[in-house]
Amino acid sequence: MTPHSNVWQRRFFIVLTLLGWIALFAVILWIISKIITPIILIGFSALLAYLIFPLVRFFQRHMTRILAILLSLLVVLAVVGLILYFVVVAAIQQFGLLIGIIQDFVLHPENHALFRSGLEKLERLGISQNQIHISGQQVIGYLQQTINGVFPLISGVFVTMISLLLVATVAVYFIVDGPRVINWWRYKTPLKYRGFINMFLNELDHSLGDFIRGEVLLATIMSIIVGLGAFIIGVPYVFLLALIVFVCEFIPQIGSYISGAIGIGFALTHSWETALIYGIFVTIMQGGLEGQILAPRILGGAVGLHPILSVFALLVGTTLFGLLGALFAAPAAGILQTFIRSFWDVWRERHPDQFPVEEQKQKPES
């Protein structure tokens, strides 16, 4: 066999290997997509256990561990229940009012000076009022379908409660057995891999834990600030807007733009002056206060994903798993980054000959 044929044979096997790995990865993603609901429930359980573990340790100073776990879960579930009752229900009611306002805008534009002037400008551009009316009806139909899809969700509260109880139950197991499992990984695994495992767990606890707790705190602060500001400015649908701000804070890079644009749209239903004032306010709050002051201090020690990686993770998560994929994109990418970083650090320590110490530059003589 000639050297030339050996080269092509090696290239063929390389391509075949790559195609095999791609096919295996595609099969894994397909399997995950079929069992995504239990994976999400387990993920929520682990997240809940991780978030309330400090509260469990606090209560454990004054009572037994089991009572501390149960009390912590009751406190968290009570807070979540109150939020769902007062905020989500109010947000759904305000969403229905918003549909009524938009419908009145489309059917009776003569009653709204701002909308009427906008129609006149569009007619001068060649867009007839009939075309605008048809488009508006389509928007109304879409919004009505959206809100009609919300009420079955509320009527299915029994299923939701079962899911919450399942999440809480699994979270209890995570809290009870979590330390024992972590200790097993730290001290019972083979010595060859123990250094990497310990480094990965330490890095994960430090960076990802700070990220999750920091994101929850940051989302809470920003939703309160933006909600209060919108209420003072006179923006309608404040509860709905605050809920949107809270959820969008978990979407990396573009979440603040989404919530800001939605808030300006809400303000336009009142007047263009209100929309202008709110636009300036939300730009200062989200661009200045959050971006320059709060986020660096709250998330300073968390996982630092490059913006390109954040956007890529967001696109992949949204494409594969929808809204939940967008919300979990950053934590999942952070876990993967932590794993790769820990592996790289351990490999550098075990192969110092591959990374020679650079000679320090001599300082110029004065």
From TrEMBL:
Membrane topology type: Multi-pass membrane protein
Residue ranges crossing the lipid bilayer per the database entry: 12-33, 39-59, 66-88, 153-176, 216-244, 250-268, 275-295, 307-340
Keyword check for rRNA processing: no
GO terms, biological process: transmembrane transport
Cellular compartment(s): Cell membrane
One CC-aspect GO term: plasma membrane
Domain of life: Bacteria
Keywords: Cell membrane, Membrane, Transmembrane, Transmembrane helix, Transport
Main location: membrane
Family of the protein in this entry: Belongs to the autoinducer-2 exporter (AI-2E) (TC 2.A.86) family.
Official protein name in the record: AI-2E family transporter
Protein source organism: Reticulibacter mediterranei
